[in-house]
Design brief:
Layout lengths: L15 H20 L1 H10 L8 H30 L5 H8 L4 H14 L4 H13 L4 H13 L2 H11 L1 H24 L8 H8 L14 H33 L5 H8 L6 H9 L6 H13 L4 H13 L2 H7 L5 H25 L1
Helix pairs in contact: 2-3, 3-6, 3-11, 5-7, 5-9, 6-7, 7-9, 7-15, 8-9, 8-14, 9-17, 11-16, 12-14, 13-15, 14-15, 15-17
Amino acid sequence: MTTETHEPTVSQRRPDWLWHVGVLAIIGLWYVVYGQLIPFSEWITSLFPVDRHSHTGEAIAFFFYDVPKVMMLLTLIVFAMGVVRTWFSPEKTRALLSGKREGVGNVMSASLGILTPFCSCSAVPLFIGFVSAGVPLGVTFSFLIAAPMVNEVALVLLFGLVGWQVAVTYLAFGLGIAIIAGFVIGKLKLEGWLQDWVRDIHSGATVPPGIEDERLSMVDRYRLGIEAVREIFSKVWMWIILGIGMGALIHGYVPEDLMVRIMGAEAWWSVPVAVLMGIPMYTNAAGVIPIVEALLGKGAALGTVLAFMMSVIALSLPEMIILKQVLTMRLIAVFVGVVASGILAVGFLFNLIF
């Protein structure tokens, strides 16, 4: 954010009540538009000369649903966090969630992730918002891992497919991976491995003087939220489109027969190979459950299938492309390594127990 001061423009001299009404109206419009994204994607897809249920039709519908969804989430969340940080500086936020409370912060953010039905790319905007507000890196990673990996849709569907024991065990392991992985990343103190512009925001270097001044009006806070959207959106929007575009291209093209042969094998390497196969694919927890059901129905090992499912929704390649604009490759490598280790443990343990 800039530290320059400017003379008020005509728009800045508008009465405060007009700003309040405008913000509420835009939020209401956002909600209405967000609820129409599925019909919109279906309508766009119908304009193409393809069968809606073909691989190409699925890819087109997926792209035109996910791109506006992630863009809208990014805009709303970054604006909200931009407003929030006018009351809470990065230093105060870090002090609240660091040190002996960091473990509690990991639990809280992982639990929040379970309650938010986001896929991996949709979780990235909130991750960016957390980082920009000065929340410790490890705590933000706990959310980033938990949000796509464990949600209520996946739990209900798993309960119906394989019973409550497996669903509860999956919940425990998924939550455990998110908490422990985030805690480990936090202890490694890798904030220096953020991209430069994110590190500046995280450290508070770009926060204008007086941002913590309680005399700031609500309109001033709105303006700072809008500035945060402009700053962050301009750096990541193109990579969001690229990442989701790649995900759409491979969406639906699942080599099911080959996967069954690998995941039904009792060899130790079946679990790591399943994880590697899942990374290039992209869908959410609800979207991958039918694949899980088909694989289990053909005799694939439960632990191997769950490891594949976790890698698809927690380590997707499109997510990595978007995160590259926020994290350096070294930090992405640490993230992938820590999460993959947890997923491998889940796969091996499930194959051993069930």
